[in-house]
Design goal:
elongated; mainly alpha; about 375 residues; 2 strands
Amino acid sequence: MEAKFNCRPDNFVYNNMLYVLCKKDTSGELIDVALSIFRGIESPDTYSYSNVLVGLCKFGRFETAIEFFQEMGRAGLVPTRSAVNFLMRELCLLSAKEGAVNEVRVRGSRKPYTILVPNVGPKSGAIRPAVGVFLAVCDLGLLPSTFVIIQLITELCRLGKMTEAFEILKVVEERKLNCVAEGYSIVMQALCEYHLVEEASHLFGRMLSLELKPKLVVYNSIICMLCKVGRLDDAQRVFQIMSKKRCLPDSVTYTALVHAYGEARNWEVAYDLLMEMLGLGWIPHFHAYTLVDKLLREHGRIDLSNKLERKLESQILHKHCQAGQLEAAYEKLRSMLEKGFHPPMYVRDAFEHAFQKYGKLEIARELLQNMDKACEPSKTEIRGS
């Protein structure tokens, strides 16, 4: 165009060419052509740089992309938000791949096969420039999408770079972004995973002061961490806060507390928690149940041991009935009656309803009649009364 008509293209024409070469090309063969065209632009603008940034990231030329980003900053230009999102997202993905598992083809045998080989030791080569890009664009008044910010925080936490994660979270909080609650949750879970008790406690208090509502997974992470390090009073306080905030516990919450109190040989609290757990419909792990049962027997509380077993058996029977597992439900009720355990009325009704639903009530009728007879007072008892 310039040679034939003696007319130099303007940036609009150049940018359209770069857009096609960098964003629409799928082969990667034209990125060098795009670079040469870019260098021929007298005064490249935001869109010129942004198109090339996307193209370089798209085809794995990350070092050159970072150089372009820095060059853009020196020129006093700010990239487009979509270009920043693309650059940061690709850097985070590259960082995740650095610590991932690779497939290696083994050919030294008669029949080649593939094995999975983990990368030894987490690397952080790609995450550093991602943090640098984030902080740089924030200083320029541009914020990436919340999805990309969360991706960055998640990757930093995975790598154990909690200082950097806190730095990003601080920016998110100061700018009052709508991903602040999710960011806090991710960092909280990471702190608990790394057993950074003081940092986790401080951040949890910060969440409450900001009137953020921690999710169940956050409460569970804190309680599990505190139980593992033996701070049961603190774990109990968090459990109480959880109740006040109307966040319902699940089996993970109760199992952690029951196991911790059981290991501390506090059978009273462990028993109460286990009964509460069963009352809410959760079935404890076998190890948690046997631990509490053993403590009850050691302290001569056979009555509570039997009560706990009856409660557990009834709950398991109820689960079988709800799931339509008729054979398992039949065997469970039969074994309970042999032990002298009679399920509560709501479980009996669930048992009858399950068999009736599948047209097999006759099979269960004998068991139900035996149970009803066992529950009736004898004639001698009636006369005596």
